[in-house]
Amino acid sequence: MDTAEPLSLVLFSGTDDKLQAAAVLAVGAAAMERPVNVFLQYWALDAFRADRIRKDHGAVPEAGVEGAAAMRIASEKGQHWADLFTQAKEIGEVGIHACALSMDMFEITKTDLDPIVDDVEGVAAFMAEATGAIVFI
């Protein structure tokens, strides 16, 4: 495998456990000098709103009480997924893109989003950048 092959992540879920998993993948790929493209759709996009990014977004039901508690503890220790995405951007070529269709659905603009989000683009633009495998989370 070419280590420079981009990692393309499509984030749909806005739960903390899934966002944490995506952030860990982004940091790992960036550390390996792989470009990372993150496309935020629906509930993942909602979690990146400036006024909501640090709030508790819960965990998927299968995580159970213990899983949700582990996510809160990780967040309190400074390992919040937003911090990991910021770290990934600091060490590598990482772009975080908001889905234009989801923006319209939620009736939000770029100014409603946390500055960690680089821009707004459509599916076609994301797919044009995405080469290789695309991971859906």
How are the elements arranged and paired?
Blueprint: E1 7-11, H1 16-31, E2 36-40, H2 42-47, H3 64-76, H4 81-91, E3 94-99, H5 100-106, E4 119-121, H6 123-129, E5 134-136
Parallel strand pairs: 1-2, 1-5, 2-3, 3-4
Helix pairs in contact: 1-4
Number of strands: 5
Strand order of the largest sheet: 4-3-2-1-5
Shape: globular
- Provide the gyration radius in Å: 14 Å
User: Unreliable stretches, pLDDT < 50, 5 or more residues?
Assistant: none
Order of helices and strands: EHEHHHEHEHE
Counting helices, strands and paired strands, the structural category is: alpha/beta
| Mean pLDDT metric | 90
Count, helices: 6
Largest sheet: 5 strands, parallel
Separation, N- and C-terminal Cα atoms = 22 Å
**How much helical structure, as a percent, in the residues?**
40-55%
**Beta-strand share of residues:** 15-25%
Concise overview:
The chain is of the alpha/beta class. Helix content is 44%, strand content 16%. It is globular and about 40 Å long.
Architecture overview:
This protein has 137 residues and is an alpha/beta fold. 44% of the residues lie in helices and 16% in strands. The protein has helices spanning 16-31, 42-47, 64-76, 81-91, 100-106, 123-129; strands at 7-11, 36-40, 94-99, 119-121, 134-136. A 5-stranded parallel sheet has the order 4-3-2-1-5. The radius of gyration is 14 Å and the shape is globular.
